[in-house]
Amino acid sequence: MRGYFFGIVLSAILLPAGLAAGEARILKVLPYLLDSQGRHALQPSLYERDAYQANLRTHPDLVRGQRYDIQWRSRTGLKRGLKLRLELRSGSGSSEGKSLVLENSVKPGWWARGWTRFTLSEAQFKELGQVTAWRVTLNTAEAEVAEEKSFLW
């Protein structure tokens, strides 16, 4: 019992210090294909979402857009002037490949974390074509503070 109490007190002391000292990070990048109604899943279930995404990948004629959900975290001192930037590339890296850059100002929420959504319209998706690589950066006015990129970037 005494060790349990000591563990709780120690966690309460060290947890805020660890969160304040944490670096800015991109935690998750979730790319989704969208159908003609803008849906990435038919039911609110992870299994159904994955099954519908597999269906959209095997039937590209049903795909009308793409969405990227990005979870990020910033340091406590970086609460103002944050921008999230998504860069997309299509093609095989040759001269005919295209690129698209999307930016959005972000504001940290609870525990200096947040989710940001980038949606490619049907026109943007058709013009860009099949996305082969992506890169997400979290920027301040002065510098890039976090980066996450796909394997082919």
Quick recap of the structure?
By secondary structure, the chain is an alpha+beta fold. It has a domain of 94 residues: Immunoglobulin-like (Sandwich). A hairpin with an 8-residue loop joins strand 3 and strand 4.
Element layout with pairings:
Layout: H1 2-21, E1 25-34, H2 46-58, E2 65-73, E3 82-90, E4 99-106, E5 113-120, H3 122-128, E6 131-139, E7 144-149
Antiparallel strand pairs: 1-2, 2-5, 3-4, 3-6, 6-7
Q: How would you classify the helix and strand content by structural class? A: alpha+beta
What is the overall shape?
A: globular
- Total strands: the figure is 7
Spell out the helices and strands N to C. HEHEEEEHEE
The major pleated sheet works out as:
4 strands, antiparallel
Oligomer: single chain
Q: Output mean pLDDT.
A: 83
State the strand order across the main sheet: 4-3-6-7
Low-confidence stretches: 17-21
Gyration radius, in Å = 19 Å
**Helix amount:** 25-40%
Kindly provide the name of the CATH class of the domain at 24-33 and 66-149: Mainly Beta
Estimated share of beta-strand residues: 35-45%
CATH architecture of the domain at 24-33 and 66-149: Sandwich
Distance N to C terminus: 51 Å
Count of alpha and pi helical runs: 3
What is the fold named in CATH at topology level of the domain at 24-33 and 66-149?
Immunoglobulin-like
